[in-house]
């Protein structure tokens, strides 16, 4: 492909994406394909001779588009958001277009330097303590990683190295392997699965401690677990606190957990993957109270801050611990700029680095602080609006509501909510997933797409209500049926109609 064809192909692809976004609201949010559908549509072998880009785009439309789940549809309310914005898409495109690999400073100075500045901007935007920033005098700093999972794992590895070094400095007769065999990590049972995974990967038992009835890990619970382990001769090493849990967006109390960790020299990592973006708005920063006790902090601009996947921001109070855990200096990587700019390869698992700072810069520059705050506040207000709608219908109960996430259910047996969600998923008009909250089966409703408006929230709410009508009708039907010892019975026989189900409860 020559450069002229690239211009045409690239422009056509941008048009395709733009058209996709203009029509996304009208598409069923979930695809209707079966497993293996794509293998049936593609040839078994690669093409012998090259084909035109026009054919490629046609294939995308014919084969790929039907198999997409539309994450940016305003009717997508599952999981947590994954970020998308046009500035970030263009940032990704330019990064691919430049095609450098930032494995050290000289391998592309702009890669490292833009990342340093962006991590300072971002840290200030969230109101993080100065000591986490690259621009502070101390050894703290920020880096962009690929995912929150990676960051939790990297934090664990750094905590492990630090603990081993600290203990061996105190008592040189200790053996590294003996120390490593005794290390323990802690988090709450509300943590993301990636937290448990980091313990598995890092060979450190991860104790998932019970959260309180609001979904928060409390200081007493942590302290008890630590004391129990110490009494057994084990060594507490790493704590992962949540600011915004995955099930209900609950916030652990850092001011309570922090001093406990600091007292025993336990590395405190803060996982704010989704909710961290809310700290761009000063009114939510009270939830950051106690963050000064943390050793590392992470949030995903790729979730809620309009930067396309992947872009996970990590700050550490002392980068030396990362570098000591990951540095395997080789002659060919040495260059004369050491010390003036961080060598980010020592802060991460892989050697090569993508230019993720570029899309982050485009988003910060084009939206500005106010644009990002507006986005966050708008999405939170939509979740509040949804909560209000649910509260108007007393067949339903709201279980939790925090940031852009509401969990709710049908009153009564869990089976009712299970039936509701399976009906909704079959219809494919909106997409939500179930969750568990204090033994109750709940529906998680997250405001995900940046295109979502009040009318979309109303559309989704009507979908829940109309399907609840069906379920509650059939419930009443079968109860009355059971009593009379007959099978199906018409609703009118039970003395109520669809519009007055409330009265029948
Ligand atoms: C989404 C999420 C994660 C996982 O994020 P990845 O970047 O996909 O690894 C971890 N923790 C919390 C609290 C999350 O919400």
Secondary structure topology:
Layout: H1 3-23, H2 37-41, H3 53-64, H4 86-98, H5 109-126, E1 141-145, H6 148-170, H7 176-180, E2 183-188, H8 193-201, E3 206-209, H9 219-231, E4 235-242, H10 254-263, E5 267-271, E6 296-299, H11 301-304, E7 312-316, H12 319-326, H13 356-391, E8 396-402, E9 405-410, H14 414-427, E10 433-437, E11 440-446, H15 454-484, H16 501-504
Parallel strand pairs: 2-3, 2-4, 4-5, 5-6
Antiparallel strand pairs: 1-7, 6-7, 8-9, 9-11, 10-11
The structure holds pyridoxal-5'-phosphate (PLP).
What report would you give on this structure?
- Keywords: Lyase, Pyridoxal phosphate.
- It is a single chain.
- This protein has three domains: 3-68, Up-down Bundle (dopa decarboxylase, N-terminal domain), CATH 1.20.1340.10; 100-354, Type I PLP-dependent aspartate aminotransferase-like (Major domain) (Aspartate Aminotransferase, domain 2), CATH 3.40.640.10; 369-504, Aspartate Aminotransferase, domain 1 (Alpha-Beta Complex).
- Strands 1-7-6-5-4-2-3 form a seven-stranded mixed β-sheet, with helices on both faces. A four-stranded antiparallel β-sheet has the order 8-9-11-10.
- With 505 residues, it is of the alpha/beta class.
- It has helices spanning 3-23, 37-41, 53-64, 86-98, 109-126, 148-170, 176-180, 193-201, 219-231, 254-263, 301-304, 319-326, 356-391, 414-427, 454-484, 501-504; strands at residues 141-145, 183-188, 206-209, 235-242, 267-271, 296-299, 312-316, 396-402, 405-410, 433-437, 440-446.
- The structure holds pyridoxal-5'-phosphate (PLP).
- Pyridoxal-5'-phosphate is lined by residues 80, 147-149, 192, 194, 242, 244-246, 271, 273-274, 300, 312.
- Residues 80, 147-149, 192, 194, 242, 244-246, 271, 273-274, 300, 312 line the site of pyridoxal-5'-phosphate (PLP).
């Amino acid at each position: 492909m020559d450069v002229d064809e690239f211009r045409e192909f690239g422009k056509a692809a941008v048009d395709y994406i733009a058209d996709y976004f203009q029509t996304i609201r009208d598409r069923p949010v979930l695809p209707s394909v079966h497993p293996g559908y794509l293998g049936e549509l593609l040839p078994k072998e690669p093409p012998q001779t090259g084909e035109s880009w026009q054919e490629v785009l046609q294939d995308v439309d014919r084969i790929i588009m039907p198999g997409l789940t539309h994450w940016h549809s305003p009717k997508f309310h599952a999981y947590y958001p994954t970020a998308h914005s046009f500035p970030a898409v263009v940032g990704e495109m330019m990064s691919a277009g430049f095609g450098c690999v930032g494995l050290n400073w000289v391998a592309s100075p702009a890669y490292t330097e833009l990342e340093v500045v962006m991590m300072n901007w971002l840290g200030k935007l969230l109101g993080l303590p100065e000591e986490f920033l690259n621009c502070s005098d101390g050894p703290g700093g920020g880096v962009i990683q690929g995912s929150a999972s990676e960051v939790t794992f990297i934090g664990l590895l750094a905590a492990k190295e630090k603990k081993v070094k600290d203990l061996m400095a105190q008592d040189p007769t200790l053996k590294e392997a003996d120390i490593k065999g005794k290390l323990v990590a802690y988090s709450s049972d509300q943590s993301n699965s990636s937290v448990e995974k980091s313990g598995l990967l890092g060979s450190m038992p991860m104790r998932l401690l019970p959260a309180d009835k609001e979904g928060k890990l409390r200081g007493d619970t942590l302290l008890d677990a630590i004391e129990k382990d110490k009494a057994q001769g084990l060594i507490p090493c790493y704590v992962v606190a949540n600011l915004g849990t995955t099930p209900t967006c609950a916030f652990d109390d850092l001011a309570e957990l922090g001093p406990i960790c600091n007292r025993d020299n336990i590395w405190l990592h803060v996982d704010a993957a989704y909710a961290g973006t809310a700290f761009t708005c000063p009114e939510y920063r009270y939830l950051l109270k106690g963050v000064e006790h943390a050793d590392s902090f992470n949030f995903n601009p790729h979730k809620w801050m309009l930067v396309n996947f992947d872009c996970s921001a990590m700050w550490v109070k002392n980068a030396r611990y990362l570098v000591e855990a990951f540095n395997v200096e080789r002659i060919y990587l040495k260059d004369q700029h050491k010390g003036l700019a961080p060598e980010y390869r020592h802060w991460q698992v892989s050697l090569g680095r993508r230019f993720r700072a570029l899309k982050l810069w485009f988003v910060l520059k084009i939206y500005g602080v106010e644009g990002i705050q507006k986005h966050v506040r708008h999405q939170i207000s939509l979740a509040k609006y949804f909560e209000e709608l649910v509260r108007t219908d007393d067949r339903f109960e709201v279980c939790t509501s925090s940031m852009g996430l509401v969990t709710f259910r049908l009153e009564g047996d869990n089976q009712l909510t299970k039936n509701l969600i399976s009906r909704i998923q079959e219809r494919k008009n909106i997409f939500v997933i179930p969750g568990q909250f204090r033994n109750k089966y709940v529906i998680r409703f997250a405001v995900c797409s940046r295109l979502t408006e009040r009318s979309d929230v109303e559309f989704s709410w009507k979908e829940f209500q109309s399907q609840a009508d069906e379920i509650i009708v059939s419930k009443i039907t079968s109860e009355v049926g059971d009593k009379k010892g007959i099978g199906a019975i018409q609703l009118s026989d039970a003395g109520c109609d669809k519009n007055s189900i409330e009265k029948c409860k």
